[in-house]
Amino acid sequence: MTDTSEHRSGFACFVGRPNAGKSTLTNAIVGDKVAITSSKPQTTRHTIRGIVHRDDAQLVLVDTPGVHKPRTLLGERLNALVQETWAEVDVIGFCVPADEPVGPGDRWIATQLATAKRTPKVAIVTKTDLVEHETVGKRLLEVAKLAESLGFEWAEIVPVSAVAGDQVQLLADLLVGLLPDGPPLYPEGELTDEPELIMVAELIREAALEGVHDELPHSIAVVVDEMVPREGRSADNPLLDVHASLYVERDSQKGIIIGHKGSRLRDVGMTSRKQIEALLGTKVHLDLRVKVAADWQRDPKQLRKLGF
Ligand SMILES: Nc1nc2c(ncn2[C@@H]2O[C@H](COP(=O)(O)OP(=O)(O)OP(=O)(O)O)[C@@H](O)[C@H]2O)c(=O)[nH]1
């Protein structure tokens, strides 16, 4: 049995500007695909938790949305969600990508971070596989100076590459070291407490975002309307019917999503179906509808319906 007096447990979250590598790092630490990554910024809308179970600790990772200056109601809600998360966690990991200089976006977030006075903050220089050694060193210095100029200190500064698996274990150890003593908070074997519906919706959204440009990412939302086991299937060959709606803001965007003779939507369906099957461990029939919800980003009623 685990001796709880030598066991730590608590929450950590990664923050950083869009594309800083937060979701990828979460996945690398948890060792499974639970958070959604995408080459498009600002796709992590929901607070998705991955849980690291160890003999000596349980680390619950909360993947916060990309912090950004709010432009719409949705943006404001995202930022409120981030602030709430910071107040609740035991340690915050601030991510800056090694392949880009520390800039105004990072400074803006660090300024917000400075207000979370009681929470230890670890600076993480991500994507170190993309640059030379000296650049990593330069970035580490920039990050240290950033905190100094804002009147606080990092508990640790760590360079990592989630893709190369470099220093990921060390980072996990450092985060664990900053957690309070306590028994496990979740049962063993649980990777995430995110409802399956939301994870399925995120997988569809991720597939829909692949290969679309410019403004579109901000205009897509996915709602899973229904997930029901197909009747009359034998227990050893089940099939899950998933009905989902993909919301866009304008008719023109509907065309982009659907593609020529529906070819794009078919690809989105195929890609996400495979992911959903892997996630849920069962065969899936996916029924995807594209709908227009005009200006949904600014409409509180629509936002509630879409789970914000
Ligand atoms: N080469 C390399 N690429 C990485 C690494 N970590 C993340 N990336 C890439 O950087 C991009 C952004 O990574 P994400 O993990 O989605 O970034 P994020 O900070 O969660 O982004 P938001 O959800 O927009 O806030 C993706 O294309 C990743 O594949 C890394 O260690 N090395």
UniProtKB/TrEMBL annotation:
Instruction: Please name the Gene3D superfamilies in this protein's record.
Output: 3.30.300.20, P-loop containing nucleotide triphosphate hydrolases
Q: Supply the alphabetized keyword list.
A: Cell membrane, Cytoplasm, GTP-binding, Membrane, Nucleotide-binding, Ribosome biogenesis, RNA-binding, rRNA-binding
Limits of the KH type-2 domain: 212-294
**Region of interest (G1), ranges:** 16-23
Residues covered by region (G3): 63-66
Which positions, given as ranges, span the membrane?
none
The cellular location(s) given in this protein's UniProt record come to: Cytoplasm; Cell membrane
Question: Which residue ranges are recorded for the region named G4?
Answer: 126-129
Q: What is its main location?
A: cytoplasm
Looking up InterPro entries in the UniProt record yields:
G_ERA_dom, GTP-bd, GTPase_Era-like, KH_dom-like_a/b, KH_dom_type_2, KH_sf_prok-type, P-loop_NTPase, Small_GTP-bd
Give the membrane topology.
Answer: Peripheral membrane protein
| Region (G5) location | 160-162
Family matches, as Pfam families: KH_2, MMR_HSR1
Segments of this protein annotated with the region G2: 42-46
Keyword hit for Cell membrane: yes
The Era-type G domain covers 8-181
Residues annotated as binding GTP are 16-23, 63-67, 126-129
What function does this protein fulfil?
An essential GTPase that binds both GDP and GTP, with rapid nucleotide exchange. Plays a role in 16S rRNA processing and 30S ribosomal subunit biogenesis and possibly also in cell cycle regulation and energy metabolism.
Family the UniProt entry places it in: Belongs to the TRAFAC class TrmE-Era-EngA-EngB-Septin-like GTPase superfamily. Era GTPase family.
Q: How does it assemble?
A: Monomer.
Q: What is this protein's record name? A: GTPase Era
